[in-house]
Amino acid sequence: MSALSQSNTTNSATMDRIATLLDTIVLGNPSAASPAAPTTPATPAQPLPTSPPLPRSGSHIRPSPPPVYDGARSGGRAFWNACQLYFSLSVGQFADDHTRISWVLSYMQHGRAVDFVGRVFQYGSVKRAFPTWKDFASNFEKEFFLFDEVADAALTLESTAYFQNGRTIDEYIDSFKALWIKADYPDGRHLVLKFRRGMDPKLSRRLGSITTGRPDDSKIEDWLAIARSQDFIMRTEEDFHRRSAPTVPTASRPTAPIPMPVVAPMLRWRPTAPPTAPVSLWTSTGSADVLFRTTPVVDASSRGTSGATAQSALTCATSCQRNWMS
């Protein structure tokens, strides 16, 4: 009889647990979903503390797609690196290699890139043109990468094309650093000399005059840092002296008009007519008689003096003719 009573008690406890689980499922309480130890019906089940949310995986990151590519060799590696970065952040997004190839081709929309896509589809499909991803990568490198980036960068460093030439020190350092990394130049005195040779002459002389705190001639990174700091100091000093230069005060203009002195007009010399030879009355008349006859005799009464007779006038004319001819 005691065994039967114990069996009924066990069955009753089991039914209570089943009822509790059904209530939990209906109410949607996940914290009490696991079976608990047998408790009395009057005691409510205590909710378990919720665990902190798990960090998101890489599949939830939305990477930026690569830019549209025009097929220029100078930008081929940059486009390829952008595609590789997208693939590394989008694991599981592409079903197979041919899906990835088609995705890359969708961003090749201008210039030589369009011709490359056209040649791909002349084969009928991407799978026939490139059986594997390795085949596509090899063809892309041959078609859109520079022929020899290492040699091209080395030739640029051996010329004057890398010089600063009016650029800022940051722009010069960035381009110089990219060239020496592509050319695979080792760090050392030779690289430091090239860096100082290409920078602005004023800044190069300033760095050469440093005696205290001078960086090691074989450490290019130290020279890059001190070049930035000295360039900043030099530009700050130039700006300070430019602003502190004294300005010459401008004279105030009077409002009333200033009387101007009257200047006499300048007399300009004008050449007169050249002197002419005196006209000889004897040559024009021919004799003293004619001159005497054509010359009016002034009456003594009209002159107010004792007049001269005609004979006296003729004698005077004859005497004058002799003096003239002599």
Automatic annotation (TrEMBL):
Biased composition (Pro residues): 44-55
Comp. bias (Low complexity): 32-43
Domain of life according to the entry: Eukaryota
Stretch list, region Disordered: 32-70
Protein name (record): Retrotransposon gag domain-containing protein
